[in-house]
């Protein structure tokens, strides 16, 4: 920045501009201005100017000021209290995003203060906000209380009293703030106070007339359960969960469904086995699609909180959900099946669960098909190659599906299964005849996946198979395919194979096919071939160098300019 330009004057000039974006950008340079002018100048000149702007500026600018005051606070070196009045004003404005930014900056500032400053300056600010005339300041105060409670010293009781007082506010926005933060504050409050004062308040909020308040209570219940003992949870938390299950508002039931696995984990297996399974089953049968879907998404984690014996009780419900009318439910149940397959008896899974996947893989909804197909990867890990016999007939049909995502899921599953089993006989007889088709798929993403799978295939099976079976198939495709894109795929696959073979094998088995491709009628094939040859010579295949140079010398006179360029570049290298 030029010495003739005064940063503060430039800031003021830009803040007079009619364009809001220019004014916002000017505020976002505040930290740079403080670096150039120093903390004292900020205190005496910039901060008073900003306080004047707060009274008249648009919300976009106020949001920027609220953010930047937090950013520059670390540069004030102990003079943190000077920015509190400005942030206090911003924490009381009507626009929510501005208040949230101010609260975040206030939290940053409080973290920089020592305990004395917190008790003498910050907590009085929070209490003033809590006693404000407008709900906006009181909402901000709730969001600040839990962060400074531990450092409040003798003022802890005042904070608690004000927090409890705000619980009875008529304004729903304040009760929502209380419901969302009561669990956070309880983490720092003495246990007897939580049980004696906070739990009664929480029960009152959990039956609030506003469903938005009741939803937030369920989020806070996770934190409260961690503080309480099992018996206390049975007494206090369980009735709230039961009431939420029967709530007329589907939003409450959805919030419960989403949080259910965490609630069950906090309550422990004993309460879960005896009391929560029936409640969870009710959610799985809920009449609202979103509630059932939320419950099924929680199902995968929930099964780890119940005993194996009780888990079998849920098998009929899994069978029902696999045929649910709502597609996302059928998609989500596939993850549940994967989790339950590792926990239940093999006979139960193969007789009652595995057939569900075979049904789902033929579902009319693409996402369900994909999820079901990928579930067979887990089934293969658990039960081995015996799953292939019923699965392969479905794979044969699905690799011809019009949707590339479904075909890709099939090929991904086949690749994962064959690298998991590492059984050459199974691979060559069952999986390879289908997987090799990925190299000729009409979707580029699938062909790229096939090429990317080559290293794991090569490392999973003996070199005799690679040289005697896999490489010949790739070369056969290179020689017989009429589509240049398929030829390029075969070339890239051969390159990937060559990187894992000895120079002699490459010279004997792979190089002749690539050299032949340099004479292909399609220019794209020729320059891909010569780039692969260049890569192979870099690998010190010295006996190959002379053949490559000969081919390159011919290609420098190729009619295609790109081929000429790559050939010349390769020769120079």
Characterise the protein shown here.
It is a single chain. The chain is mostly helical and 573 residues long. It contains 32 helices and no strands. It is flat, with a radius of gyration of 34 Å.
Mean pLDDT rating: 89
Strand content: under 5%
Q: Structural class, from helix and strand content? A: mainly alpha
Q: Give the terminus-to-terminus CA distance.
A: 46 Å
Q: Which blocks of ≥5 consecutive residues have pLDDT under 50?
A: none
- Count of alpha and pi helical runs: 32
Largest sheet: none
- Count of strand segments: 0
General shape: flat
Radius of gyration: 34 Å
Helix content: over 70%
Summarize the structure.
By secondary structure, this protein is mostly helical.
Please tag this protein with its features:
single chain, 573 residues
Question: How is the secondary structure organized here?
Answer:
Blueprint (H helix, E strand, L loop, with lengths): L6 H9 L4 H9 L1 H8 L1 H16 L4 H14 L11 H7 L5 H17 L2 H16 L4 H14 L7 H11 L5 H15 L4 H16 L4 H17 L2 H16 L4 H18 L1 H16 L4 H14 L5 H4 L3 H7 L5 H15 L4 H15 L5 H18 L4 H11 L5 H18 L2 H12 L8 H17 L2 H18 L3 H15 L4 H15 L5 H16 L3 H14 L5 H12 L1
Helix pairs in contact: 2-5, 5-7, 6-7, 7-9, 8-9, 9-11, 11-12, 11-13, 12-13, 13-14, 13-15, 14-15, 14-16, 15-16, 15-17, 17-20, 20-21, 20-22, 21-22, 22-24, 24-25, 24-26, 26-28, 27-28, 27-29, 28-29, 28-30, 29-30, 29-31, 30-31, 30-32, 31-32
């Amino acid at each position: 920045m030029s010495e003739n330009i005064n940063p503060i004057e430039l800031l003021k000039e830009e803040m007079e501009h009619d364009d809001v974006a220019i004014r916002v950008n000017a505020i976002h340079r505040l930290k740079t201005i403080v670096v150039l002018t120093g903390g004292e100048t900020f205190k005496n000149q910039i901060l008073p100017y900003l306080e004047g702007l707060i009274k008249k500026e648009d919300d976009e600018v106020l949001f920027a000021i609220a953010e930047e005051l937090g950013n520059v606070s670390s540069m004030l070196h102990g003079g943190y209290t000077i920015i509190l009045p400005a942030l206090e004003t911003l924490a009381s404005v009507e626009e929510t995003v501005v208040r949230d930014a101010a609260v975040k900056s206030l939290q940053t500032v409080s973290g920089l203060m020592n305990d004395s400053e917190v008790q003498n300056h910050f907590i009085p600010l929070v209490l003033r906000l809590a006693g404000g005339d407008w709900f906006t300041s009181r909402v901000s105060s709730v969001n600040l209380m839990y962060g400074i409670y531990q450092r409040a010293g003798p003022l802890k009781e005042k904070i608690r009293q004000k927090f409890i007082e705000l619980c009875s506010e008529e304004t729903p926005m304040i009760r929502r703030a209380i419901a969302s933060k009561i669990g956070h504050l309880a983490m720092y409050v003495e246990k007897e106070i939580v049980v004696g004062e906070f739990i009664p308040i929480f029960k009152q909020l959990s039956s609030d007339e506003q469903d938005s308040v009741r939803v937030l209570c369920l989020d806070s219940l996770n934190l409260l359960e961690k503080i309480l003992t099992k018996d206390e949870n049975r007494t206090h938390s369980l009735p709230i969960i039961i009431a939420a299950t029967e709530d007329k508002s589907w939003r409450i039931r959805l919030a419960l469904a989403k949080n259910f696995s965490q609630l069950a984990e906090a309550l422990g297996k004993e309460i879960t086995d005896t009391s929560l399974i029936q409640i969870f089953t009710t959610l799985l049968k809920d009449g609202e699609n979103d509630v059932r879907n939320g419950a099924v998404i929680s199902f995968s984690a929930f099964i780890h909180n119940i005993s194996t014996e009780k888990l079998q009780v849920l098998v009929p419900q899994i069978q029902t959900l696999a045929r649910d009318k709502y597609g996302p439910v059928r998609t989500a149940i596939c993850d549940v099946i994967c989790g339950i397959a590792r926990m239940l008896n093999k006979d139960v899974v193969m007789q009652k669960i595995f057939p569900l996947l075979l049904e789902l893989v033929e579902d009319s909804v693409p996402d369900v098909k994909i999820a079901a197909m990928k579930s067979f990867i887990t089934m293969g890990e658990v039960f081995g190659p015996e799953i292939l016999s019923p699965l392969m007939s479905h794979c044969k049909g699905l690799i011809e599906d019009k949707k590339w995502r479904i075909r890709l899921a099939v090929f991904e599953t086949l690749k994962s299964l064959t690298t998991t089993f590492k059984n050459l006989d199974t691979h060559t007889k069952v999986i390879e005849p289908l997987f090799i088709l990925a190299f000729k798929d009409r979707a580029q993403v699938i062909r790229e996946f096939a090429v990317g799978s080559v290293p794991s295939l090569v490392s999973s099976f003996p070199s005799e198979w690679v040289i005697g079976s896999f490489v010949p198939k790739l070369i056969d495709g290179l020689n017989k395919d009429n589509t240049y894109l398929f030829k390029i795929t075969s070339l890239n696959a051969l390159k990937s194979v060559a990187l894992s073979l000895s120079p002699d094998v490459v010279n004997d088995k792979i190089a002749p096919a690539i050299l032949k491709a340099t004479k292909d009628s399609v220019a794209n094939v020729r320059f891909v071939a010569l780039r692969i040859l260049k890569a192979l010579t870099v690998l010190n295949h010295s006996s190959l160098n002379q053949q490559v140079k000969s081919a390159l010398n011919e290609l420098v006179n190729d009619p295609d300019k790109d081929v000429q360029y790559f050939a010349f570049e390769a020769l120079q290298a």
